Amino acid sequence: MPFAPEDQELIDGFLTETTELLDKLDDDLVTLEKSPSDMELLNGIFRSIHTVKGASSFLGFDLLVKVTHKTEDVLNRLRKGELVVNPEIMDVILEAVDLVKVLVGDIKAGEIVEREIDGTVTKLLPLLSEGAGEATVLAAPQQVVLAAASAEEPPAEAGEASSCSVQPTKEKAPSPRPAAPPAVAPGKELKAKPEDLTDSSTVRIDVKRIDDLMNQVGELVLERNRMLQLDSDLRSGADMNRFAEEFGKLAKRLNFVTSEVQMQVLKIRMIPVEKVFKKFPRIVRNLARELGKEVELHLFGEETELDRSVVDEIGDPLTHLIRNAMDHGVEMPEERAAAGKSRCGTIVLSAAHEGNQIVISIKDDGKGIDPDKVAAKAVDKGLVTQAQLANMGTREILDLIFLPGFSTKEVTTDLSGRGVGMDVVRTNIKKLNGIIEIRTELGHGSEFVLRLPLTLAIIQSLLVDVEGEIYSIPLAAVFETLRVEMKEFHTVGGQEVLKLRDSVLPLVRLERVFSVNHTYANDVSCYVVVVGVAEKRVGVIVSRLLGQQEVAIKSLGKYLANVPGIAGSTILGDGRVALIVDPVGLVEGNEGGSAGR
Question: Is residue 326 a contact partner of residue 318, using CB atoms and an 8 Å limit?
């Protein structure tokens, strides 16, 4: 049933408000489970559901009203102390919120879908009956002790349980739930994620940033007027010396104002990474209960800002890495206790700025990754040979988990194992011109570090000349530049190398990679640009260095989207097109033995 055009403005306002409320609700509910006596938080959750119910009733969304009304009633009983928060009640409330998201998603899609909601409503009804509070107390006694403000000293088991943010219930005989029909109609799976409701075509902007942009645009208009006046003076035969002086001043001023406008526009596109992070407490909570593990999630740097285009793309890779840490990183409570660790595992998700990059880390204190086991599995699956393994260091062996089809998982589950699908994670990160590296200590945990550009639109680059062709190398990947005599080059196993201080640097000739015709006669000396990805280094041989420049990245289009070694293109000041080199592609191509030959 499509909406009438005259109702669309009301619908849009409803969706905007409801999406904001639901985006925050998952995190608030998981926090409430950890702090069941936080009445301020509980009242805030109640108000959010009440607001959605009221707006839904006004607009006539009957299915949404039924679900939110029953959910509101359960929350009201929690507020009155007639029920006590425990994992079983929270499971039902979270399921109801998921159904609300699905129903709101239907409205956002533009039509009402008749969904089966009785399954979820049936689970809510027992919590509204008299005596439900007593049944709840019997189901999770340790949680009641934690929730009661005037409770006596909790028993040892309850104390242990309270130290962990997310954990399974420990009762031996949980109260059975009544059988219920599916929560959704056939063919309509219940898949509700916070990002499902997010409108990626819009972004909320601080008014101060708009004001700053307007001020800079005003300055730009003044410089435009000055430029038009100079053009008029030139046409009327102005003194050339004076014109040259005034034009030089205008060029400097225009450069400054344009840079300021560019910075303001970039700031407008920047949003906190919290938009992605806030969905992970719910994911960790659900996985902990499903796997029977005790896990505590710590978030740091949620206020760190990056371009919304990057934020939109990193959600899936981060979700996969969090699931890996839960499934393969953190051990079962009994296994951790036997190893002398706390029964409750820890996952730390953090974000921080480093120069013009954002660094995101997913770290767990689990059992770590065994390089020997990785190597054995890679050989067993035919991904590498024993001869290739002999020439690999620990870091290269760990990188094998990014190969398609690799897994150390003995038994297949519906969760992503550490290695299952990791090639997709790396592919997604590479699309963002980022890199991913692994740090691990056997028995103490693992860390996956993602380094991503702050924006995909504009980068600082080093312009180089290769036999008359100009290329742009992202400055973030450049470590140093050298002027080298050709006679210093050596060939080892068919690969050109250069002895650089205490290491041997493999070399790549860009004219060979991109089939550039030999133009210059000077074969005595050249320049080497040392680029790197994580701890890997390669020397790029170029004819000349032309200097640093900020460039706008332009797509090559779908027909040239996957050219090896090329990340895009840019237009130089003189109108020429320069290709932007992909450092990751060069390093990986060189490892394959073909880039430098």
Answer: no
Neighbour count for residue 312 (Cβ, 10 Å)? 15
The CATH number of 458-591 is which of 2.60.40.420, 2.60.40.60, 2.40.50.180, 1.20.1070.10? 2.40.50.180
DSSP character at residue 2: B
H-helix or E-strand containing 547? strand 544-552
Cα–Cα distance between 346 and 366 in angstroms, integer?
8
- Residue of 434, 418, 423, 518 whose CA lies nearest to 476: 434
Amino acid at 8: Q
Tokens of 208: 């101060």
Contact call for residues 583 and 508 (beta carbons, < 8 A): no
Distance CA 248, CA 241 (A): 11
Residue type, 517: N
Model pLDDT for residues 536-547, shown as the tens digit of each residue: 788 999 988 998
Domain boundaries, the chain: 5-187, 207-270, 273-453, 458-591
- Residue 254, phi then psi, degrees to nearest 5: -65, -40
In CATH, the number for domain 5-187 is 1.20.120.160
What residue type is assigned to position 190 of the chain? Answer: L
Count CB neighbours of 538 within 10 A.
24
Closest alpha carbon to 222 in 244, 253, 252, 263:
253
What does the pLDDT look like over 290-338, one tens digit per residue?
899 999 999 999 888 888 888 878 888 899 999 989 988 899 999 999 9
Q: In which residue are the tokens 């035969």 written?
A: 237
Structural tokens at position 429: 């990160």
Return the CATH fold of 273-453.
Heat Shock Protein 90 (3.30.565)
Residues 200-248 pLDDT 10s? 566 678 888 889 889 999 999 999 999 999 888 888 887 888 888 888 9
What residue has token string 């393969």?
A: 328
